[in-house]
Amino acid sequence: MRIAVVNFSGSVGKTVVTSHLLAPRIPQAEIIAVESTNESAADLGLDVDQLRGAQFGKLFRKLLTASAAIVDVGASNIEDFLAELNKYDQSQAEIDYFILPVVPSGKAQRETIKTIESLSGSGVTPDRIRVLFNRVDVNSIDEFSPIFAYAKLSRAFMANPQAQIFESDVFDLLANRRLTIEAIVADQTDYRAQLRETDPDNEDEIERISDLIALQSLARPVHRQLNQTFNALFA
Predict the structure, then answer these.
(1) What are the residues whose beta carbons fall under 8 Å from the beta carbon of 103, sequence distance 6 or more?
(2) What is the domain partition of the chain in residue ranges?
(3) Of all helices (H) and strands (E), which one includes residue 203?
(4) How far is 92 from 142, CA to CA, in rounded Å?
(5) DSSP 53
(6) For helices 78-87 and 106-121, angle between their N-to-C axes, nearest 10 degrees
(7) In the CATH scheme, what is the homologous superfamily, with its name and number, of domain 2-168?
(8) Tens digit of pLDDT for each residue in 39-49?
(9) Which of 142, 134, 207 has its CA nearest to residue 168?
């Protein structure tokens, strides 16, 4: 599976989607960040090949031979990326799915629709354009009504309301520690035993271990929800 995570809008969670949702569930996927200024999956400890939008020729050749790839296209590079995509005849066919994360703000939703229009204009079929609802508070249908209305009107993309990531502090906490949610959930260290054995006067160590226990407790339900999100996104 070869996926491009794209959106004209910035700060919609493309790197969160790449690092925490997609990479752990697509075995052996090569991660390519088309980014020049912002955080990428490399900042969370993942192995990432970094390119710029104008280096599409190099990316195209990578996609020709990759069995699995995740291309995280930063907002500062997406215009170059899409322009180059149109230069190479049928190059969009080398990408199985275009995933568009979007947050509830009006600006983000408008720019998501603009991105969909651009991809459709490049010949990408509706089944390969999939919107992912990020930072959902309660209900994606209510919070992203312009996207669902446009989906019904245009039939140009897939919008499954269950393809959603709920608002959570866990992603910022993980970013501060440069960890993925997969890594923290997979950590089998018995931190509670460590906490019991720690010198009660060692306040810094107690705080460190307590923070890790709390982070794991917060991460586990989010990780389970991401499994459901992944299945809904590719249903």
Answers:
(1) 9, 11, 12, 13, 134, 135
(2) 2-168, 172-220
(3) helix 203-233
(4) 32
(5) G
(6) 10
(7) P-loop containing nucleotide triphosphate hydrolases (3.40.50.300)
(8) 555 565 566 67
(9) 134
